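If you are new to this repository, start here. Below is one unmodified record pulled from the training split, so you can see the exact layout before writing a loader.
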Amino acid sequence: MGRVLVTGGAGFIGSHLVKSLVRSGHEVVVADTLLRGNKIEKSIFNNLEFHKADVRDHAKMNALAKGTDLIFHFAAVLGVDVVADNPVTTMDTEVIGLRNITDAAVTNGIGKIIYASTSGVYGHSAIEKSFKENIQLDPRTSYAIAKRYNEIYLAALHEEKGLESLSLRFFNVYGQHQDNRMVVPRFFEQAIANQPLTVFGNGQQTRDFTYIDDTIESCIRLMDKVRGREIYNIGCEVETKILDLAEKIIAITGSSSTVQYIDAPKKRYDFEIERRCGNSVKLFDAINYKPQVELLEGLKKTYTDHYQSEIQTI
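And here is the target side for that same chain:
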C-alpha cells in the first residue's frame, strides 16, 4: 500500500478510481477544481485527503505531490461541446497541467505517473479493424492533439530524466456518475423523459463502449506495470453503432421515445468520426485482463446504479 495522488479525482472516472484505491487500503490525495461537482461517494470522501486545486497551479501540485509514491493524472476538460467551445482552456489544462505534474514528480522523487489519454488520438485516418497502439495517428481536435502531445512529452521525459509513465487510451467509458456531456447519460435522460433520442447524422457511426468497472480494474492492475513509457488501449474491442446504443437504452428504460436524426453542428465535425474500436491485446498481455462487460449488461447496471440508486455523492 502507498500514498497516491489523483488529479481529477472528483470526476467520473476519477471518483471510481479513488473508491477502488481507498477500499484497497491506499492513502489517497485528491486534487480537483470541482467545476463539475464532486462525484466521490460520501463514505469514500471521509477516508481521503481532498484539495480543491487546479492542475495549472504549479506550486499547489508540487506541494500535493510530496510524499506520494504514484500519481494518477486524470484531470481534464471533457465533453465534445465543452471542448469545442473552450479549446484554449482544454489545451492549457492538458499541457500546463501535465508539465506541472511531471515537474512535481521529478522535484519530489516520484518515479511513476499514470496518465489518462484518449482513443481520440486515432482520429479519422485509422481504418484498421481495431486500433492498435502503434498505428498511424490523426488527432485533430484541441483535446486529442493535446493528449497526443502529452504522450510524446512523457516519452521525452523518460529518455531525458528517467520518469516512468503509462498513457491510457480510454475508449468511450460509461457508467454510474457520468453526466450528460457524454452520449450514454444523455440518451438515458432523454429516454426516461420519453423525449426523442437525438442522434447526429445517420446513427451508423461506431464506438467502443467500455464499462467503468472494467476501466478501473485495468487501471488498478496497471499500477504495478509502470515501466519505461508505455501506451495502453483500454477498450472492449466491440464496435457498436450509435443507433443500436439508442435502441438498447429505449428498451432498457421501457421508454416511448423515438430516435430523432439531426445534423451535427459544424463545431463537432472533427469529433464525428465514422468508426472507433480498440485493440486490447497489449493490455491483456501485460495484466492478464481486458474489459469484458458486454454493452447490454453494462447499460442495465448503469440504469440500475445511476438512475435508480440512492447512493449519495458530496
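Two things worth knowing about this chain: The longest strand covers residues 112-118. The chain is about 40% helix and 20% strand.
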